[in-house]
Design a protein that fits this description.
- Helix content is about 10%, strand content about 30%.
- It has about 100 residues and is mostly beta strands.
- The radius of gyration is 14 Å and the shape is globular.
- The two termini are about 15 Å apart.
- The mean pLDDT is about 90.
């Protein structure tokens, strides 16, 4: 989805993405991880990313096939879509 390359030293406990212009995003496994319950903040989100897309419907369809889910609560109307990744992190698709 990001167009970034997987870092060559990624493994089960760490994954890195290398993006355009030197952008690096690292993700690590956390012992005792508790999935966030967005929009409820009992277990708050740990990160939130927004991705600009040209077609909300098309990208949502692709991401749902890849394992994302769409929560009922959608606060931005037709300007953006909130999706939840398989680990429970919410992220948004926004029109560019």
């Amino acid at each position: 989805m990001t167009g970034a390359e997987l870092h060559p030293e990624s493994h089960n406990d760490f994954a890195g993405l290398i993006g355009v212009g030197g952008l690096f995003m690292g993700f690590q496994r956390v012992d005792g991880y508790r999935r966030s319950q967005w929009p409820d903040q009992t277990v708050p989100q740990q990160i939130h990313l927004d991705f600009e897309v040209e077609d909300l419907d098309q990208m949502e369809t692709i991401l749902l096939r890849l394992g994302a889910t769409r929560p009922e609560h959608q606060p931005a109307g037709e300007r953006a879509r909130v999706l939840i990744d398989p680990a429970g992190h919410p992220f948004c698709l926004t029109l560019n």
